[in-house]
Amino acid sequence: MPGVVALRLYYLASFAVIGVYLPFFPPWLAARGIEGLSFGLLTATFPAMSVIGPPVFGLVADALGLRGHLLRVACAGAFVGFAGVAALAGGGGASFAALLVPVVVFGFFRSPMAMLADVVALEAAREGHVPYGATRLFGSMGFLVAAVLAGGLEPTSAVQIPLAIAALLLVTLGVTFALPSRVPVPARPSAAQIRALLASADVRLFLASAFFAQAAFACYDQCFSLHLLARGASPRVLGATWAVGVFAEVLLMANAGALASRVRAPVLLAVAYGVAALRWTLIGFVPGFLPLVALQPLHGIAFGLAWISALAYVKDRAPKHLLGTAQGVFVATVSAGSVTGMLGWIHVYRRGGGALAFGGAALVSAIACGIAIAFARRTRAGQNEAAA
């Protein structure tokens, strides 16, 4: 199907952006002398904008049936934002005050790019075309390749990292013109229907567990590169280490369909959050950087399994005409968790290093796991009542 091919290319390009941004933007900021609260605010801007952007774009997508049109708007805005970062860096003006506006613009428009693609992929999966995991894994592959190649860039260079991100955003924008611009407008969601969905006990437990899980995961996004470099890893090893984790994510997503057919999504979420708690504990306390590389396959479960399971629940739980809205609310919730974590973890890391920061993240993931267990029990009880 040409639409599926174009969607896979979109995932490949759009997640290549994140494959450069996540591992290398924090060290790039540190190399510019941006630290402390300023560092935390700039790295938290992307998830902060993800609290706003996805629900807004999701509501518009559901109300007007827009897909490719909205993706083009999002990609163009994100490109303009990071082109501004690159221009400031090239002119020697990469201060916190100067960077804040273009980083906010990038964050707002980049935040719905994955969410809108997920809506298209979930719609394709719901219609029986291609399983979601078989499409989404191309995003993980894009992240993997970009993280490895970006390891050859110099994080202390003023322009290499921002130019690479801006160029990848421009490529992503080009791919959106091959995607379907819109779908037939479904029944428009009402405020009462949205409130009823969010008032459900199972949905609230699901969102609460996702919030705490992502608050813990923010420690990895924000501090893992710094932790690796502090342990003596080179930039090339840094990129390869991130790539190992994403390769495990690709393998899991390629086999997610078989796993989901055997185990309920809420149970898989509890498992993923429990493994995440173990992962953060080990990252914080094992010595050297080679063991950190060896632990990266756990990323396949801690992130890949959690994401696939969460979206499987959203797809099954939300009515068709509320899919974009429900996906937007989910992304906003995990983004709120990211903001909460990123505003705190960098300070914890500066004070106590990786042991204190990742040890704290392990405790927060354990809370997420406990809520997910309650969520799994609640949904099982609901299924039993429905069967009776």
UniProtKB/TrEMBL annotation:
<protein>
    <submittedName>
        <fullName>MFS transporter</fullName>
    </submittedName>
</protein>
<feature type="transmembrane region" description="Helical">
    <location>
        <begin position="134"/>
        <end position="153"/>
    </location>
</feature>
<feature type="transmembrane region" description="Helical">
    <location>
        <begin position="296"/>
        <end position="314"/>
    </location>
</feature>
<feature type="transmembrane region" description="Helical">
    <location>
        <begin position="37"/>
        <end position="58"/>
    </location>
</feature>
<feature type="transmembrane region" description="Helical">
    <location>
        <begin position="70"/>
        <end position="90"/>
    </location>
</feature>
<feature type="domain" description="Major facilitator superfamily associated">
    <location>
        <begin position="6"/>
        <end position="341"/>
    </location>
</feature>
<dbReference type="InterPro" id="IPR024989">
    <property type="entry name" value="MFS_assoc_dom"/>
</dbReference>
<dbReference type="InterPro" id="IPR026032">
    <property type="entry name" value="HcaT-like"/>
</dbReference>
<dbReference type="InterPro" id="IPR036259">
    <property type="entry name" value="MFS_trans_sf"/>
</dbReference>
<keyword id="KW-0997">Cell inner membrane</keyword>
<keyword id="KW-0472">Membrane</keyword>
<keyword id="KW-1003">Cell membrane</keyword>
<keyword id="KW-0813">Transport</keyword>
<feature type="transmembrane region" description="Helical">
    <location>
        <begin position="354"/>
        <end position="376"/>
    </location>
</feature>
<feature type="transmembrane region" description="Helical">
    <location>
        <begin position="159"/>
        <end position="180"/>
    </location>
</feature>
<feature type="transmembrane region" description="Helical">
    <location>
        <begin position="240"/>
        <end position="260"/>
    </location>
</feature>
<feature type="transmembrane region" description="Helical">
    <location>
        <begin position="201"/>
        <end position="220"/>
    </location>
</feature>
<feature type="transmembrane region" description="Helical">
    <location>
        <begin position="7"/>
        <end position="25"/>
    </location>
</feature>
<feature type="transmembrane region" description="Helical">
    <location>
        <begin position="267"/>
        <end position="290"/>
    </location>
</feature>
<dbReference type="Pfam" id="PF12832">
    <property type="entry name" value="MFS_1_like"/>
</dbReference>
<feature type="transmembrane region" description="Helical">
    <location>
        <begin position="326"/>
        <end position="348"/>
    </location>
</feature>
<keyword id="KW-0812">Transmembrane</keyword>
<keyword id="KW-1133">Transmembrane helix</keyword>
<feature type="transmembrane region" description="Helical">
    <location>
        <begin position="96"/>
        <end position="122"/>
    </location>
</feature>
